[in-house]
Amino acid sequence: TYDVVIVGAGHGGAQAAIALRQRKFEGTIAMIGEEPEIPYERPPLSKDYFSGEKSFDRILIRPAAFWEERGVAMLTGKRVVKVDPDAHTVTTEDGETIGYGELIWATGGHPRRLTCSGHDLIGVHGVRTRADVDRMMSELATTEKVAVIGGGYIGLEAAAVLAKMGKQVTVLEALDRVLARVAGEPLSRFYEAEHRAHGVDVRLGAIVECIEERDGRVAGVRLSGGEIIEAQMVIVGIGIIPAVEPLMAAGARGGNGVAVDEHGRTSLPHIFAIGDCAMHANAYAEGLPIRLESVQNANDLATTVARAITGDEEPYNSVPWFWSNQYDLRLQTVGLSSGHDSTVTRGDIASRSFSIVYLKQGHVVALDCVNAVKDYVQGKALVTGRVAADPTKLADPEIPLKSLA
Ligand code: FAD
User: How many whole angstroms from 36 Cα to the centroid of ligand 1?
Assistant: First the structure.
C-alpha cells in the first residue's frame, strides 16, 4: 500500500509525483506504468527522436536517480486492469494487488486503429510509445515509400521527418484539409503547401478502403475508388482512445475520457484523473467538457491534483498551449480556436513567419504563431483576457500585440 498511487508513467504521472514532492508531500508514492521505460517525453517521438537527432536518454523527463532520490517507487512494465474503489486497490494484469490512499489516473490513450482489412499487418504503425517509434526506425533502411494516414500534427510531423530523410511520402487525409480538427483554414493551406514543396504527396478527401498485403507485410494502401498507394510502411495518426476502461468498469462517470471536476477529482472517492484521459470543463472552451491532448494540460492538471492532495486547492484554469515542429517551422499555439467565427492573418504567410489570430464575436480566443515567438509570447495576454482587439491592428505586424492587451 502507498499513500499515493499514480497509474500511468507518462507526462501527467511524472509531473504529479514531481509536484507532490515539491509541495513537501512526505507520504509514499508509487507510479505504475505499462511501458518498460521510466517517464519520457512523448513529443520528440514524431520529431527529433524519430529523426535520430535526440537519443532516448535525452528525452527522459528525469533521470532514474531523480525518482530514487525523491522516493518514488517506479513499478514499470505493469498494466493496471482493475480498480476497486471500496477496497482502495488496483490490480495489475499479472494479478498483483496494490493498495492506495489516493489514486491518480494518468494513462493517456492508445492510438485509434484502423478497422479495415490489413490494419494489423507488419509495417503498419501507430505512434504513441518509444516501442512504436523504435519499430518504425528499425524498418527505415528497407523502406522507400511511406503512406501516412491522417493529416493531424503527429502524421504531418512524421511526414516531415521522413521527407527530410529522402523517403517518398504520401499523406492521406479523409477531410478536405489537413489539421482540420485543430486549426483554421489558412494554417491548413500553409502546411499543405509546405509539405508539397518538400515533395510530400498530400491527398485530401482520401478514403482508405484497406491495407494491401504482400508476403505477410504491408504493401500499400487501397483508396476507395480503387487506387493503390504503394508503401512499405504505413503510419496511422488518427487520434487516440482514452485508456479509462478500468475506471469506467469501476463506475466512474465519463464518456469520451473520465469526467473530472476543477480539481481533477473523478466521481469516485479518492480517485483523480489527469492528462489526455481526463474530460474537464475548460474555461477556454467556454466551460464545455473537453479532453486536451497536450503536455501543458497533463502538467497543469497534475499540479492541480497535487495541490488538492496536499490541501491547497486551486481550480484548474490554465490557458492551453501547444507546439509542433515541421521542417524549419516552429508552430506555437495558445488558446483554443474551436468555435471561432473569424480569423486575422498577421504578417505575410509567404515569409513563413506569421500568426493567425482567431476571434469569436470580436474577442481574441487563440493564436497560431509560425516562426513568430514574439506574437506567441505577447498574444497570450490577449487570449487570457479575451481582449476585443481591432482586426486591422491585429493584422499589422508593426504593432506589437502587447500594446493591444
Ligand atoms: P502519456 O504521456 O501518454 O502517459 C500515459 C502512460 O500511461 C503511458 O506510458 C501508458 O502506457 C500508460 N498506461 C496506459 N494505460 C495503463 C494502464 N492500464 N496501466 C498502467 N499504465 C498505463 N503535446 C504537445 O503539447 N506538444 C507536442 O508537440 C506533442 N507532440 C506529440 C507527438 C506524439 C508522437 C505524441 C504521441 C504525442 C504528442 N503530444 C504533444 C501529446 C502529449 O505527448 C500528450 O498530451 C501527453 O503525453 C499526455 O500525458 P499523459 O500523462 O496524459 O499520457
Answer: 14
Mutation to probe ligand 1, out of 35, 37, 42 (largest number of atoms < 8 A from CB): 42
CA of 8 from ligand 1 middle (Å) equals 9
Q: Whose CA is nearest to atom 49 of ligand 1?
A: 11
Q: What CA–CA distance (Å, rounded) separates 222 from 212? A: 7
The answer to whether residues 228 and 222 touch, using CB atoms and an 8 Å cutoff, is yes
State the pTM of this model.
Answer: 0.97
The tens digit of pLDDT for each residue in 146-205 reads 999 999 999 999 999 999 999 999 999 999 999 999 999 999 999 999 999 999 999 999
Rounded Cα–Cα distance for residues 324 and 331 (Å):
5
Q: In the structure, which protein residues have their CB atom closer than 6 angstroms to any atom of ligand 1?
A: 7-13, 32-35, 42-43, 45-46, 79-80, 106-108, 127-128, 154, 243, 275-277, 293-296, 298, 322-324
ipTM here: 0.99
